[in-house]
UniProtKB/TrEMBL annotation:
Residues 123-217 form the P-type ATPase A domain. InterPro entries: ATPase_P-typ_cyto_dom_N, ATPase_P-typ_P_site, ATPase_P-typ_TM_dom_sf, ATPase_P-typ_transduc_dom_A_sf, ATPase_P-type_domA, HAD-like_sf, HAD_sf, P_typ_ATPase. Keywords: Membrane, Translocase, Transmembrane, Transmembrane helix. It is a multi-pass membrane protein. Residues 1-28 are annotated as: Disordered. It comes from Streptomyces crystallinus. This is HAD-IC family P-type ATPase. NCBIfam families: ATPase_P-type. The lineage of its organism: Bacteria, Bacillati, Actinomycetota, Actinomycetes, Kitasatosporales. The keyword Transmembrane applies.
C-alpha cells in the first residue's frame, strides 16, 4: 500500500513550486521547451475538440429541418398561390418561432461555452523541472503530468513516479476497487486518483487517448434522454399517424363538397390540417431549456447535460456531503491534547513532519500545517497517503537524532479499539460539532496491512470547521419544498450531527454510524428513510446508499467535492459538484457550482421545477388544439359539410389562446415538484378538453348553417363557430393558468380583449374574415360556449379525482 519516496536524503521539495532538476536528485524534469515546440510542430498535441454545446450549424439545422416544419412549409407554399396573404400567416409565425428558438439556443451555447472554459480541468505538467498548470489541450506527447488526490487522468500514459498512487478506474472498467500504480504501470485517461501522488508520461494524446471520445460526448450540450422530450416525441409520433389518414379524408371530402371552387376548397382543407400540428411545443420546450441554462449560467452554475435541469425538478431526496457543502473547505486547529503524558513540544514536531510528508494535504492536514510548521530536522522515509476507505494517513521518519518512528493520523474511532477510555472524551468534543483527529505511534512497519491494529494513542488534535453562512437557509428551502436532505459524511456521526443541528437540519439529532448499517438493500433503505445524518460512510457505502434510496422510488441528487463522492455522484440521478472540487467529481457531475456556493442549489432546483412544470402546463394547451382539430376534421368528413375555418381564423385563435399565453406560462415561476408519466398526465386533460371544444364548436356551426342563408352566410357561419371555439379555448387557458396571480389574470383578460378588438375594428374584421351577423346566433354561440366551459370544469375535476397526480 505504500511506495518509498524516490527523493535524495538531503533534498527537500516544495510540493507547490518544485525546484529545478539540478537541485533535486533522481527526479524527472519533464520535457524541455525545445522538445515541446518540436512536438507541437509535429502535431503531437492533445487537440481533442471538447465542446460544451452543439455547433452553430447544428443548432440552425436542428431548429429548421424538422418534420413539422417540412409539412407546414409545403402547406404554406400552397397557400401563397391559392389564397390571400392573411391565410398564409401561419407560415410567418413558424419562421418567427424558429428564429426565436435559434437565437435562444445560441445564447445558451455562448453561456455554456464560457462556463465550460471556467470549469475546465487544468492538469499540472512538469517541464524543465518546473510544474505549472496548463490547459488540457496544451499537453503534448511525452509530457510529464503530475497527479494528486482527486486529479483526473486526461491522457493515456505510463507511470514514472509513484508515492502510494491509487487510481480508480471504475468509470472505464466498472471495477470500484482502487488500483495501486507503480512505475511502469499503464495509466488510462478517464480514471482518477483517490490517494497518493505521482507523475506519468503521456504516451497517447488527442483522439488516440482511451477516453477522448467519452470526454467529448459527456460535455456536449444535449436535449435528449429525458422523460419530457421522449414524451413529446411519442406524442408527435401519434399525431403524425392521426394526421395522415385524417388529412387525406379531409382533402377528398372538401374537393367533393366544393367541386365548383378548387382554390377555396384547398384553402379550407389546409385550414383543417395546419392546426393539427403542435408546432410550437418542441420549440417552446427547447426555449425553456435554453433560458434555464442562461439563468443558471448567470449564477455561475454550469449545466453539463441539459436533461439535468429536468431531473432536478423530480428530486425528492438530496444527499449532502458535509465537508465543502455544509462547511467551508478550511479548518482551524483549536486545541492539542497530549495523551498518556506525552511531551507537547515533541508532538508538535511530529505533526509538523506529518504535514510536510504529504505534497497534497487535505483540509484537515492543511490546518495542522498552518498551526505546526515543520522543524526541518526530520526526514520522511515512507508515507501512506490519506484514504477515505482507511480513514487515516501515516508516515515513517528518521528523526534528527537518528531514531526512527512511524506515525498515524486519522479517525479516533477507527484507530482506537472499542471501549477505549479516550473515546468518551472524544464523543464530548464531537457533540460540540468539533472534528477530532488522533495522532498514534505505530509499532509495525507502515506497509503492514495491520499497521493500525496496536498503535499507541499519543495526542488528540481538535479542529473547528467553518460553517457556510448560507447553508442553514438552503436546508430550510429544501424542507419547505418537501425535499428530504440526508447528510452523508466520512466523519464521525456525532460530529456531523452537531454541525447539521447548528444549521437547523430536521432530524439532525438522530445520527447513524454507517459501520452499523445493514448490508441488505431493503433494510438499508428503511434506515435511510428514518434518519437524516450518517457518519463514517465509506465511498462504496455512499454508492450503496444512493442505490437503496432509488430502490424506494426516490429521485436522488448527490452533492460533493471530494474523490470519495465520485462513485455516488456517478450513480445518483443528478450529480452536483463544487467548482473547487476534484477534477474527478467535476467530470462525472451533471451540474457544477462554479462559485462553490451551496446556496446556488435552490436556484438550480427551482429552475428545474419551473421548466418541467411549465412545459407540462403548456403541452396541455397545444394538445387540446391538436385533439379538437383532428375531431373537427373527422366530423367534417363524416357529415360531408364544408370545413369550418380558413387558416387565418385558426392562426388568430392559436396566437391568442395558445402561442402568446404559452410563451409567458412556460417562463413563469413554478415550485411544484414534477411528477412522472408526462404523456399520461398531459393527455388525460387534452383528450376531454379537445373533445368538448370540437363538439361545442361543431354544434354551433350546424346551428349557424340552418340559421343563415343567402350572401354572406358562409362568413357568418364561420364567425359564429370561431366565437364558440375561442371562448371554449379561453376557458381551457383559464384553467391551465391556475392558480391565479395578477399577471395570469391580466394575461387571460388581454387575450380576450385582443379578440374583441378584432371583432370591433372594421379593417380587422375584413382581414380575418370575421363578422358576427345579427344577435341571435352570436348569443347562441356564447351560450353553447358557456355549456362547454361547464363541461370542461366537470371533466377537469373528474379526471383529477379519477387519476390523481
Amino acid at each position: 500500500m505504500t511506495q518509498r519516496a524516490n527523493i535524495d536524503a538531503g533534498a527537500e521539495l516544495d510540493p507547490v513550486h518544485p525546484v529545478p532538476p539540478s537541485e533535486a536528485s533522481g527526479r524527472a524534469s519533464g520535457l524541455s521547451a525545445a522538445e515541446v515546440a518540436e512536438r507541437v510542430a509535429r502535431g503531437e498535441v492533445n487537440d481533442v475538440p471538447v465542446r460544451s454545446s452543439r455547433s452553430t450549424a447544428e443548432i440552425v439545422r436542428a431548429n429548421v429541418f424538422t418534420r413539422f416544419n417540412a409539412i407546414i412549409g409545403v402547406l404554406w407554399l400552397i397557400m401563397l398561390f391559392v389564397a390571400p396573404l392573411q391565410d398564409s400567416l401561419f407560415g410567418f409565425v413558424i419562421i418567427a418561432n424558429t428564429g426565436i428558438g435559434i437565437i435562444q439556443e445560441l445564447r445558451a451555447k455562448k453561456t455554456l461555452d464560457s462556463l465550460a472554459v471556467i470549469g475546465e480541468a487544468k492538469p499540472t505538467v512538469r517541464r524543465d523541472g518546473v510544474a505549472a498548470e496548463i490547459s488540457t489541450s496544451e499537453i503534448v506527447l511525452g509530457d510529464l503530468v503530475e497527479l494528486g488526490p482527486g486529479d483526473k487522468v486526461v491522457v493515456d500514459g505510463e507511470v514514472v513516479e509513484s508515492d502510494g498512487l491509487e487510481v480508480d478506474e471504475s468509470l472505464l472498467t466498472g471495477e470500484a476497487d482502487p488500483v495501486l500504480k507503480k512505475p511502469g504501470d499503464k495509466m488510462m485517461s478517464g480514471s482518477f486518483v483517490v490517494a497518493g501522488g505521482g507523475a506519468f508520461t503521456a504516451t497517447k494524446v488527442g483522439r488516440e487517448a482511451y477516453a477522448a471520445q467519452l470526454a467529448e460526448e459527456a460535455s456536449r450540450f444535449t436535449l435528449v434522454h429525458s422523460e419530457l422530450r421522449s414524451g413529446i416525441s411519442m406524442i408527435l409520433k401519434y399525431v403524425t399517424w392521426l394526421m395522415v389518414p385524417t388529412s387525406i379524408g379531409l382533402v377528398i371530402s372538401q374537393l367533393v363538397v366544393k367541386d365548383d371552387n378548387f382554390k377555396e376548397s384547398v384553402a379550407y382543407t389546409v385550414g383543417g390540417i395546419v392546426p393539427m400540428i403542435p408546432e410550437g411545443l418542441v420549440l417552446l420546450t427547447s426555449v425553456a431549456f435554453a433560458i434555464g441554462v442562461i439563468r443558471l449560467g448567470r449564477k455561475q452554475c454550469l449545466v453539463q447535460e441539459l436533461p439535468a435541469i429536468e431531473g432536478l425538478a423530480r428530486v425528492d431526496v438530496v444527499c449532502l456531503d458535509k465537508t465543502g457543502t455544509l462547511t467551508e473547505g478550511g479548518m482551524d486547529v483549536t486545541e492539542l491534547r497530549p495523551l498518556g503524558g506525552a511531551d507537547e513540544a515533541y508532538i508538535r514536531k511530529v505533526l509538523g513532519a506529518l504535514g510536510e510528508s504529504d505534497p497534497r494535504p487535505n483540509a484537515s492536514l492543511q490546518a495542522i500545517i498552518d498551526a505546526y510548521p515543520d522543524s526541518e530536522e526530520w526526514r520522511c522515509r515512507e508515507s501512506l497517503p490519506f484514504s477515505s476507505a482507511r480513514k487515516y494517513s501515516g508516515a515513517a521518519f528518521s528523526e534528527g537524532d537518528g531514531e526512527n518512528s512511524t506515525w498515524l493520523l486519522g479517525a479516533p474511532d477507527v484507530l482506537l479499539p472499542s471501549g477505549d477510555p479516550s473515546l468518551a472524551e472524544i464523543d464530548g468534543l464531537n457533540e460540540q460539532g468539533l472534528r477530532v483527529l488522533l495522532l498514534a505511534r505505530a509499532r509495525r512497519e507502515l506497509d503492514d496491512p495491520q499497521v493500525a491494529s496496536d498503535a499507541r494513542a499519543t495526542a488528540l488534535v481538535v479542529l473547528e470547521q467553518r460553517l457556510r453562512p448560507d447553508a442553514g437557509d438552503t436546508l430550510r428551502y429544501f424542507e419547505e419544498q418537501d425535499v428530504h436532505a440526508k447528510v452523508i459524511s466520512g466523519d464521525n456521526a456525532v460530529s456531523v450531527g452537531a454541525v447539521a443541528g447548528k444549521l437547523g437540519l430536521p432530524g439532525a439529532s438522530r445520527t447513524v454510524d454507517a459501520r452499523k448499517l445493514p448490508g441488505d438493500q431493503a433494510e438499508m433503505a428503511s434506515v435511510l428513510d428514518d434518519n437524516a445524518v450518517f457518519g463514517r460512510v465509506t465511498p462504496q457505502q455512499k454508492r450503496d446508499m444512493v442505490a437503496a434510496l432509488q430502490s424506494r422510488g426516490h429521485t436522488v441528487a448527490m452533492t460533493g467535492d471530494g474523490v470519495n463522492d465520485v462513485l455516488a455522484l456517478k450513480d445518483a440521478d443528478i450529480g452536483v459538484s463544487m467548482g473547487s472540487g476534484s477534477e474527478a467529481t467535476r467530470a462525472v457531475a451533471q451540474i457544477v457550482l462554479l462559485n462553490n456556493s451551496f446556496a446556488t442549489l435552490p436556484s438550480v432546483v427551482a429552475e428545474g421545477r419551473r421548466v418541467i412544470g411549465n412545459i407540462t402546463r403548456v403541452a396541455t394547451l397545444f394538445l387540446v388544439k391538436t385533439v379538437y382539430s383532428v375531431l373537427l376534421a373527422l366530423l367534417v368528413v363524416c357529415t360531408q359539410v364544408e370545413y369550418l375555418f380558413l387558416p387565418r381564423h385558426l392562426t388568430l385563435l392559436s396566437t391568442l389562446t395558445i402561442g402568446v399565453p404559452a410563451f409567458f406560462l412556460a417562463l413563469a415561476p413554478n415550485t411544484e415538484r414534477a411528477k412522472p408519466h408526462f404523456v399520461r398526465r398531459v393527455m388525460r386533460y387534452a383528450i376531454p378538453g379537445g373533445a368538448i371544444a370540437a363538439v361545442t364548436t361543431f354544434a354551433t356551426y350546424l346551428l349557424a348553417r340552418h340559421y343563415y342563408e343567402g350572401p354572406g352566410a358562409r362568413e357568418a357561419e364561420t364567425s359564429a363557430a370561431t366565437l364558440t371555439l375561442f371562448l371554449v379555448s379561453m376557458w381551457v387557458l383559464a384553467i391551465i393558468a391556475r392558480p391565479y396571480t395578477w399577471w395570469r389574470i391580466a394575461l387571460v383578460l388581454s387575450m380576450g380583449a385582443a379578440f374583441l378588438l378584432v371583432l370591433a375594428v372594421p379593417w380587422l374584421q375584413k382581414f380575418f374574415a370575421l363578422k358576427l351577423a345579427g344577435t341571435t346566433l352570436p348569443w347562441a354561440a356564447v351560450g353553447v360556449a358557456v355549456v362547454g366551459a361547464g363541461l370542461l370544469e366537470l371533466a377537469w375535476r373528474w379526471v383529477g379525482r379519477r387519476w390523481p397526480t
